[in-house]
Amino acid sequence: MSASTIHIIGAGAFGSALAHVWLQSGLAVRLWCRQAAQAEALSHHGINTAVPDCPVLTGVNGGQLDHFQATSPADIVVLAVKAQAQTAVFQNLAPSLHPNCAIVTASKGFADEQGALLSEALMGEPRLAVLSGPSFAADLFANRPTALTLATTGDADPLLSTLSTPLLRLYHSDDPRGVQVCGALKNVIAIACGCADGMRLGASARSALMTRGLREIERVIRAYDGDPRTAAGLAGIGDLALTCQDRQSRNHRFGFELGQGARASAVLAQGTTVEGVRAAQSVVAANRTQALDLPIVSAVAALVSERITPQQLLNELLARSHASDVG
């Protein structure tokens, strides 16, 4: 696939990291943001004034979203804005999109408070590809090798060949639903693991939360008509392992602060995006999950809403009846 331009919507850390990787492979990249001054600094100097750790993006073309256009059928549009903002952002962009250009979401979360998938809220599944998996922006900025999942329902070869680089290895999945569920729920489990680490419960407790959390992810994937085997791949266990064990993860860091005694409302008031908060609340409110046994996800939803304390969360999980390790 010969893309005329990769349009990245959202010039935050991860959108900028993708721009950095693709620019280094000689691809034409346009990085779109809301602020005119930020777009101008990108175009003239390659400097992203909103992301201090971002290296100079040599050759990038900055753009202000108010003037967005993707007019070539070979264009690729990558959505890298907050999950629950994507529907509104995309609706504004849609009139300026060529009907045949590829659309990729790189966000991890549900589209709304009722647990709709991004593919359901945006445009329907056949046209939307999902880019997900274990990745920190800092690693991409530092040119460290990274492997991600690209999920599509159709022929993935053109996108895979265009977006893969020597340092960004993409593996195909034909389960966009399962990949989206993994991307949303790994953040929820990361909050639980961060909370356990903040309480100094040790590596054994964290490992137990990750493993049992993976079972909950599999149950939710089934409820969303996805393939539970997706949880065993990069978008599932791969991203879970990364996010649950490193304070580079905003979700783990947020949980750690809660485990240290901070109030969720106070931490969130600082303006940090913690996608796992909305994801936990959305999945427990979704009609599709009401019959599911989701003790960790439900406990995190209660914790971030300040209905229980970290100690109560621990007590609830430890008081559960015995169950099979494989169910």
Identify the notable features of this structure and list them briefly.
327 residues, alpha/beta, eight-stranded mixed sheet, globular
Describe the structure in your own words.
By secondary structure, the chain is an alpha/beta fold. It is 45% helix and 12% strand. Strands 3-2-1-4-5-6-7-8 form an 8-stranded mixed β-sheet, sandwiched between helices. α7 (176-198) runs antiparallel to α8 and α7 (176-198) packs parallel to α10.
- Percent helix, as a range, is 40-55%
Cα-to-Cα separation, first versus last residue = 42 Å
Kindly report the average pLDDT value.
93
Strand order of the largest sheet: 3-2-1-4-5-6-7-8
Number of helices: 14
- The percentage of residues in β strands lies in 5-15%
The count of β-strands is: 8
Order of helices and strands: EHEHEEHEHEHEHEHHHHHHHH
Shape estimate: globular
Class from helix and strand fractions: alpha/beta
Task: Note poorly predicted spans.
Answer: none
Question: What's the main sheet like?
Answer: 8 strands, mixed
Rg estimate, integer Å: 19 Å
